[in-house]
Amino acid sequence: MSASSPANIIIAYLGPPSSYTHQATVDSFRAPKYTLRDELSIRDVFDAVQSSSASFGVVPFENSSNGAVLHTLDLLIDREEAFPDIHICGEVFMDVQHCLLGYVSQSFSSDNKDLQSSGSSGSATPTSSIPFPKEPRSKPMTDLRHVKRIYSHPQAFGQCEAFLSTYLKGVERHEVSSTSKAATIVAEDRDKSGAEAAISSRLAADVHHLAVLAKGVQDVEDNTTRFLIIQRGPVCHDIQNLLPEKFQMTNGFRLKKKALIAFNIDHGTQGALANALLVFKKHSLNLTSINSRPSRIRPWHYIFLVEVEGEREFDDPDLLHLALQELDTVTEGNKWLGCWVDRFGVNAGQ
Amino acid sequence: MSASSPANIIIAYLGPPSSYTHQATVDSFRAPKYTLRDELSIRDVFDAVQSSSASFGVVPFENSSNGAVLHTLDLLIDREEAFPDIHICGEVFMDVQHCLLGYVSQSFSSDNKDLQSSGSSGSATPTSSIPFPKEPRSKPMTDLRHVKRIYSHPQAFGQCEAFLSTYLKGVERHEVSSTSKAATIVAEDRDKSGAEAAISSRLAADVHHLAVLAKGVQDVEDNTTRFLIIQRGPVCHDIQNLLPEKFQMTNGFRLKKKALIAFNIDHGTQGALANALLVFKKHSLNLTSINSRPSRIRPWHYIFLVEVEGEREFDDPDLLHLALQELDTVTEGNKWLGCWVDRFGVNAGQ
What we know:
The structure is a homodimer.
Chain A: E1 9-14, H1 20-28, E2 34-39, H2 42-50, E3 56-63, E4 67-68, H3 70-77, E5 86-95, E6 99-102, H4 112-117, E7 149-152, H5 154-159, H6 161-167, E8 172-175, H7 179-187, E9 196-200, H8 202-208, E10 211-215, E11 224-232, H9 237-240, E12 257-264, H10 272-282, E13 286-294, E14 302-310, H11 312-315, H12 317-330, E15 333-341
């Protein structure tokens, strides 16, 4: 059966299973219509879609606290031209609730008095560099003094600073490739001494039989990750029709739509970047974000990625064509990375 | 003796000793006039300068292949208002030559034939996702089959993909806080089995008594990191005079100057970002780069950091004042992060 047969639509996502990307994918693409397949890296998801071994791919794009996922930006820019046909066709927002996972130490678990006196008072310690530290949003459910090493993804560490600096100050951090990988490492801790803990998802605790030592350890309540759905080729109704209805681009509806465009400019021309951005303004495409990445052709030259939103422009190919034509005249090169229905404020499961 | 006494000017830099930041600092601030002090984190360098325990700080800002150092951007944005007085007053460019450091395995070292047959042919393997992989720029100086784990900073891993995917494909990677920390870990490998290796500086090999297993393992020849020098307070001649002459801001000279400005906008106003960038164009301040970071006040709202360059504008406080006044009218808030002499094309040691 081919990957694009309606009965067996394959969705590649950034694994391993129990990753946040997995959760976003499960919520968007329901069985039995879709078959989900985990991939080892974001690049592997791009590869699966480019080679048509999957119809769609799901990758993390941006976190509301920590910013863009640079690796995804680099793959979209595609300096090596390995993914010429990849286009974005949808987005999924998902609340991220980090947990501290590990083992409960028998020697400390009933000794809450000592927990207090050991400096873990539950309020972040002011220092000269952080005179008004953020208060952690949650408390540990058990003593954490046995924890000597924490594993997580760098983005997750960045999202849990208040909790870590209050309850796990000075504890060694090991950055690994994903939050689910972190849980795997801790689950493999053979003597179960409890010296190792992971910041990972609630789902990972079940999958790896780990104890939840603390819930909701992220700094801000509203910690949302945005995922992109990618497909092969630009908006193409043959493929679009395989998507769940909520992601399909339909003409005429007054839905807000978004697009991502990459371009580079002649850095020697004064005002070149402002000129490029003016094109979007002129064509009523509101600029909602901008990122820059090194071009890797010349040092200190950049490729810019801009996200724009609008209504009428996306429904009228002529209007869009005009805007892109004008962009050609003020950039050294540009690439259309796809457009999709704005899903902001709509959770994955809805 | 106070930190600002000319005979004992303290420079805080991101350590540990033998880090690339250390190298950039040594080359710029020569003994006996300056006393260098290593700090554990970029935040600690900011803290030292804000609290006046150091006159200047040196921190990494951007790499020519890998882009901005997000942690430095976040500290400059200073959402917590912990560093209200920090301003940039200089920049240093430094070539980064990564080395693979570790131990030479006695059992493999003379067995080059096997090295060839084990798939490490010296050319990167084409895959469907990378049909034309970058060729590694250098070859290992010894067999690497005994290497089972590599330690380095995530940025350094990102800069050495061709070498790693050719000669150390599938070897476990451990991301640590700095390249010098990576060398420290490998040096502590007690049985010297050679299973651990680090991507670090040539200087770190000497400091930690490690063998250089390969030199220049980074993907591109031109791999340069830009460091910022920070001081307390905006351009202030009392402090500026303590800087080495090459970094001092002097009026009248036809030196190109740069400045960094952070601002946020009303995301609901169409064209708000383009309007803000137009102000710089109007005042002949050429935009050379732009980065965005989450505001962390509302999700999907950003703080933008723009770098501008010009000549006349920086020498005439009135012209600059006009530009900033106009920026006030089109942004929700903005922050001047300092200006400095453009040092592009001038190496640290010169």
